[in-house]
Every structure is written in C-alpha cells, then in structure tokens.
Amino acid sequence: MITTIRTKIKNSTVVGLWLMTIVVSLHSCQDYLDVQPQDKLSGDQVYRNIYDADAAVVGIYGKFMGLAEKYVILNEMRADLMTTTRNSSPYLKEISEHNVSANNPYANPKDYYEVILNCNDVLKNFDIMLANKKFTQAQYNQRYADIGALRSWVYLQLGIQYGNVPYITDPIENLDDVKNSSKYPRIPFDQLLDKLLTFTTTLTYTSPYDSANTLNINVDGYNTAKFFVNKECLLGDLNLWKGNYNEAAKHYKTVMETSTNSGTDTERYDNYRIKYAEVATNNDFAVGYVRYSEQDARSLINNNTQGWRSMFARSRDVLWNTEWIWSLPFDSKFSPKNPFIDIFSNRSGLYLAKPSQQAISLWNNNKQRNGFPYDARGQKFSYTVIDGDEVIMKYLYKFLNPVTLNPADAFQTGGDWFLYRAAKLHLRYAEAANRDNKHKIADAILNFGIKAAYDVPGTIDVTNIQKTKDAFPYDFDARQGDFPFYRGNWYRGTGIRGRAYLERAPVVGDSLISIENNIINEDALELAYEGNRWEDLVRVALRRKNPAFLADKVYDKLNKEGNSQASSVRTKLMNVNNWYLPFTWQ
Amino acid sequence: MISLKSKYKKLFVGVLTIALVSCSNPWEDRQNNGDANLSVNLSEVITKKTEVSKFGALVVQTGYDKILSESKSYTVFAPTNEAMDQVDPAKLSTPEALSLFVANHIALTAYSSIRTQASIKIKMLSGKYLEFKGNTLISDATIVTADQYAKNGVYHIINKALTPKLNIWQYINSQVNSSLMSKYLISLKELNIYKADSIAKSTAIPGAMSDSLTNSYLRNVYNLNNEKNSYTLFLMENDGYTAEVDKLKPYLTTPKADFTTTLTSYFTIRDMAFPKAYLPNEIPSVLTSRFGVNVTIDKTQIIGEPIILSNGIIYRIKKVIVPLVDRLVTTKIEGEKNSSFLPTNLRSKIFYRDKQDPLGINYNDIMVQNPGVSLFTLNYNSGNLYSTTYKVYWRAINDVQTNVFQQRLRIGGVVQADGTIKDVIKLFDYTDVAVGVYNEVYLGDFTLEQAGNIDLISLIAANTTTNGNNSLTLDYLKFVPVIK
C-alpha cells in the first residue's frame, strides 16, 4: 500500500514534471514568437486605405533609389565619357573594358528584380484593394499607372544592359525563382520592348499625379511632384527604341507642352521650353557671362544659383521646375545613402570615376559664340580639376562648398539622382523627329530653336513666320512680334546649343545621319554622366544596324588613355551579343 | 518502477546533453586553428631562429624586440648570419648607427612577396624608402626565404644586409671640406637668394616641411633631403665649378660683390639637380632643369662610379659646361597675369580671354576694350633678370576690333606720392597693334645695369578717351637676354 502510494506520488510527480516542461517550453515559445514587431507591419496592417497605397508607392521609390549607382555606372562607365581612376576596383575596370566577370557586383541583375517583384506585389494588391473598394477607380488608376510605368522603366534598363531577360509580371514570393529559366524564360530585347509597349500603352492615366493628390506633398523639405516617373517620357522612349518615331514624338511633345494651358506666363513660356538666356540677371539655365563682359572668361556665370550649373545645385524652386521632369533627392536625413559622393569626390569620397579624355576633347572641339575654344559645360561645369584630378561635378554641387570645393559638411551628403530633364526631352524629341523626316525641326531644336530657324530677318509682321505650320506633334508657334503683337508659346525657346552659348552644329552630307550624329554628340555634351550615354549609343547602333557606331566610340575612349585593350575591345563590340552583360544571379 | 526509472534517466540524459552542448564555446575556439606560427610574434621568431641569430641579437640590443612584439603588423627583412658578417663594422659602431641599421630592416604593415604591383617603394622604420622589386629583390638584397609569418607580420630572410645609405643632402654635408660646390650648397642655410627665403627661414616651424625651408637651395630648387622622392645631382669638381661660376658673373652684377658671387653660384648650380634618379645608361643626352635650361652632360667627364644614395644618385663630374645662350633664360610675362591695373575701378573693362589662334592653338590673353578713359594701364612685374641688354617682344592680338590701335610699354619706375613715375628704365614708343596679327612683334631693347627684379612693368593705352582707340591687348611679353 505504501509502495503503491509512493509509486503514485512518483508517477504523478514525474508526469507533472514532464507536463510542466512541455507546457513551459511550448508556452514560452508561443509567447516569444507572437510578439508584434514594433518597426514592421504585418500582412493585415497594409493595403487598408489610400494612405497605405501611398505608403506602398513611396516604399517602391525608396527601393528604386538603390538602383541609382548601378544606373550611372553601367550607363556611363561602359560608354565613352567616363573612365576609371587610380582608385577604381578591378570590377569597375572590367565594366570600362567590357570584360565583365561573372561575379562582378555591378553586373548583378538581382537589384533590378527586387524592385520589379516589389512592383508586381504592389500592383496585385492595388487590384485587390480596388475589388474590395478600398479606394476609388481614379485613385487606383493614378497609382497603378505610376508603379506600372516604373516597372517598365526598370525593365527597359534591364533590356538595355542584359539583352535577354525574363519578363515577370506576376508576384512571386521567392526572388531566386527569377533564375529559373524554365519557369521564366529569357526573352530577347526586341520582344521585351513589344511587351513593355503593350503593357505601358494600356495604362489609362499618363499624366503626373494631379496637384490635389495625396502623393503630391512636401516632405523633409522636398516637394514630391517630380519624384515619380513621367509616363509620357517613358512611352516616348519605348517608342523611340522600337522605331515608332511619330508615336515617340507625340509622347515627347505632350510633355513639352505640359504648361501650354497654364494661366501664368512664366509657366507657359518657360516650362520645358529650353528658354533663352536672361542676359541682364543671369537667372536662367544658360551658359552665360556677366553682361558686356562676354569676352572675359572670368566673368562666366559659374555658381550654384545662376546659369547652367545651377540646375544641378539649386533647390526645387520655380526655375528648377522649368527644367526638371524626374529627379530623386538623396539627403543625409533619410535612406538610402547618396552613392555619388563616394564615386566622384576626390576630397571626401573614393574617386572611382572621372571624365575620359574622349569626353574632354568632345567639349573642347566646340566653339562658343564669344570665340572661346571650348564648351563651358565641359571644363567649367560638368567636371573641374581639383588637386590635379579631373572631378565629375554634376553630383557634387550640393555637397562641396561652391568656392573652396571642399566638402561643406562631410556629413551632409545631399545630392540628386538626375533622371529626366527638359534638355533630354528635347534631344529625344529631335531624334524622333529627325527619323520621322522632320529634319528642319530636329535641327532647330538641337541648335537655336524654332523661332530662329523659321525666322525671316528684317520682317516686322511675324504673322506667317516663326512657326512650323505643321500638325501635332510638329506644331510650334514661336512668334514674337509687336506689330501686330504675338507671343507664341515657344517664343522663348532657344534650342540646346543656343542655351549653351555655342556655335551651331553644321549639317554635313546626308541630313538624316548628320543631324542624328549631331544630336547624339549633343547628348554627350549636355547630359554627360546623367546615365544616358550607353543607351544612346546602343539605340543608335541598333537602329543603324552598325555596331561600329558604338564600338568606335568605346575604342576612342580606351585608345586616348593608352589602354592596350582598345583594339580587342573594339573587335569584341563589333558583335552585338557582346554589348550585353552576363545575366549572372548572385 | 523500472519503467519510471528509465524515464528519469531519459530526462537526465536530455538535460545533461543540453548542458554539455551549451558548455562548448565556439567563440573561445575561434582563434585556435592549429597554426603554431600564429601563436608567436615576430620578435620571438627572429630572436630564436638560428639562421638569423646575429641580426636577432642586434634586434634585442637596440630594443626593437619590444616593437616587434607589439600587436601591429610589421615586415622584417632579416639578413642571414653570413650577410651580417659582411657588414662594415663602422656602420654599427655607435648605438645610433646600430639602431638605424636595425630600423632599416623593418617596415610597418606586412608586405608579402606576392603583390599586384611589380615594384613598390616601402618606407622602413628608419625613414628611408627601399624598393621592393618583383618577389625576390629588396633594394640590392635577394630574398632567400620569403613569406615567413608570425602573428604580427611577415619576415623574409635576405642574403645581404640593408645597410642604411646616406641621402643626397647628408652626402653633401659630408663633403663640405673638399668640395666647393658642396660647401656652397650648405652655406645657403645662412645665405638668401630671395627675400622670401629669409622669411621662410625665420618662420619655419620645426617638423613638417621645415627642412625644405631652412636652406635656399632646398626651398627654391629641390628638397634633396626628402627621402620620398628620387633625384640626380651632378657634383662638379672645384675647377670646373669655379670656371662655370665666373663665366656667369658679368650677368649677375649687384651692388655687393659678395652677393654677386652668391647669386652667380646659385644660378650655376640650380641647373645641376633633376627630379629623377638616372642610372648612367639612363641619362638623356639633354636634360632640362626646372628653370628651363637645357643641360648637356658629357659623360666622359664623370669621375668614378655613380654614388647611389637612399634618395637618388650623385655623379661626381669634372665640369658641366652650359653655354650662356642656354643658361640665360628668356623671361616671359603672360598678359593675363597682371598684378594690378589703373584706373582701379574699371575691372569690368578687362577681359581675360580663352582663345584659339588660326592654327588651332589655344592661348589665354588679356584685352581691355571700351574703357572710356585714356591711358588705361596694366601692370606686371618680373624677377630673376640679368644685368644685360634685353630684346623685347610682345604678342598682342587685335582680333575683335577692325581698326588698328596703339599701346606702349614702360619698363621700371617708382610711383611717387604725386602720381608721377621716376627712375623709368625705358619707355617704349607707342606701337601699332595691327588687326589679325598673331606673330611676336619686336619693340626694341632695354639694358639693366644690375641683376634682380623689376617691380613695375606697364602696358599703357593711347592717350585718348575715344573707345576703340584706347584698347589694350597682350598675350605675352618676352625679354630675351643678349650675350655680351
């Protein structure tokens, strides 16, 4: 009996011990795992209303900004305007010499797909929100178009850099599934363009967010209006790549006319029109000199608040808005960190990239209208010599003290990712117009503007001159007359080279090819280091079915700096397949 | 009962297992990878290695064993005992020399024999730089056993001691009793060539940069005491040196005979140093000094072997004859580098221009246009002028106007309180500036009785307020000395 009791006691004790162990362990596990994280949202806390949708859009753009460094390095270092320095890593040298190894981090496509899959996920959830009536159709249209267009933009970049890529539009949970080429076959660039055009053309809303939109606000001292991809510009680019020149010109022209119906003169005459120089005040984006001292090189308007340079240095004010279409700010107040200071600065960064001799000679082969034997956009603005190094300056104006060129504050790493501006828009439009057999318009946009090209000197009555008398997208009214009085919307337009204070680019021989060469050359002078050069070269070389167009330019860059690989790189680039980076997932 | 006990056991085993597993501490194990080399420091290895025991003894004697046991990274080039036997005992006679000797075998940071660069100059603890060439050569020693390592760095065993060499300046100091040129070089510690030299000497802060400021030669020509760079110096024998100095004396007349000698000696030997170490077979036929003087080295005049030093090479040479036409350099004054202008309120009428001539060559010049005043004046100055006659040329480009205008040049002069100028050396006549002329134009001559500076050289516009006629333009002025 005693034994039995003792056994029972032991029995129950042991069982109790077991139970306690299990209960305590399980229970504590459950509690531990069920704590709600305080800095993350769970699935049921998102996509509940319009503000959640906005947060998703902003989140995508935050992720998107992580592509800035790659965008600039791949589009510039692979082309002819930017080259490596003594500090550049072997990986950067590989990029510059078109000898990219599989483990080169700059060639890893994963970052692009992270953005794309995020977009896919957001788009799916927008559909669900719409179905559940969490926001209105109009609200849905604007946001869906934005994210959809952004995804197309990223895909266009992928196509340009990699040639054959998988086109994925459904949300997949596991990023590494992209590697699975049986599940997601890689399609050639041309087919990708078709798919991108098909998708992007179906977007019903193609304007920027309207001014009442909750995404159009001021935050951290920045107005968000120009944060978002311009869908018309993207459509223009896609059509230009595809060879639909008239269609491209229409989209570009739509953007060029953004402020046509504005009630204020400054907006209507200045926005995206490449306005003439304000010679008295120099409050403009022109290359200019102090008035009446145009022969004095030291009177060049070279500061952060006036003239051409200031478009890279000023805050998002009224004048800034006349030029910029798409630009994302970096600021030490928020993530991600500005990658450009490390790349370009030799006083505070790593100085990994510099202008090539080829770029420098392109600028110096031009002549300004005051007889100076260079293009000030080169040696004065786009780069400058600091401590004996040629330093690319566009990204550093917000970081360096404008006089001493030392970091104003090493911790204030402000700057911008420059994505689209009026000059690029005009040059793209000119490229499309030229291929659409509107050579005169293309040449006018490139050189001194419509008014100058369609003028009859000495005529007072401008009723029938200074305009193109053509249909959309080639309709320009640039009339400026006092008797009778005319002020056409384009009367202040002065053309890209006009604004840059250069002599006109001569048209030699076949006007189509000659003007196109001039436009691509002007792209280099005006837009250098803004991440356009490689795609410009690829686009034109593909269009002309002439790999030498691209290969020769890269050869010139390498050859001018004495690189022994120059000839073999040229030979390599004569094969279109070698233009593309290896699609190696890391 | 039995079954219960077995359950106890299971529980016990389970708890014990957990306890044991958590007892193992991977963090503690992280350093132990079984490599014995990593448990000793360089000091311990080198003092115990019999192959280099003599060097090891010196390391202890000089106290460098303390440094080599620090937890920084070092590279030691340890000479074998046979190599140590070859070392000149005189180099190890004093504690300082001994310490310098050991320090010359040690570098901070670890240098492997396998590197990406073919050759690097590495700084030893002695302050001297040695060249690490390929993966076997350090200075003139060969590595016999490479890439041995301990926990705080690497060491290489070498077949020849790296006895510290003098640098060029130290060598010159050792020659002052026999070599006039060396004696003069050292005397420039006290003697000044330019006013700025005396200011530099009086304000030099000991430490950084100071040694280049303490001697007029080191300051104005090259800092031959700098271990980081390499130089070549041609050290002339006394006869050749004196002859070359005497040849130049008529061109450097000053009121004081002593200063004339100082100046003449300086202008002779400033062209004897070059910023690269040239081995005998590398000396180019014509060397150009940093002052633009072409110097032809007659290699047959070189005495003995070149003296290889830690920062370059000295050649003892009987003489280096530089013809006066080469020695007396032309003075060129750039138009855009004016020191001042009159009237001082009309800066807006001055254009500093970046231009291109018809041959496609870029140039910078200065132009004054439409000032609305007469006698607009641009001022310049110039140093290092010889006591001789100069031929004067200008390149003045009149490209934006269609009319010919006139301007004149005034050399020297001192502005008086009333605004007049006295002691003018030469006032040239007004000279036409023809349209579209890109050539140099000869203006005439002026003669300097004494060598030195001219503080006021003025380009003066026409005496008219008529715009278009009162312009100024100047690419450069050229003063070409005439050989007497």
TrEMBL record, chain B:
Origin superkingdom: Bacteria
InterPro entries noted in UniProt: Adhesion/Biosynth-related, FAS1_dom_sf, FAS1_domain
Pfam families: Fasciclin (PF02469)
FAS1 domain boundaries: 39-162
Gene3D superfamilies linked to this entry: FAS1 domain
PROSITE patterns named among the record's database cross-references: FAS1 (PS50213), PROKAR_LIPOPROTEIN (PS51257)
Protein name as it appears in the record: Fasciclin domain-containing protein
The species this protein was found in: Flavobacterium cellulosilyticum
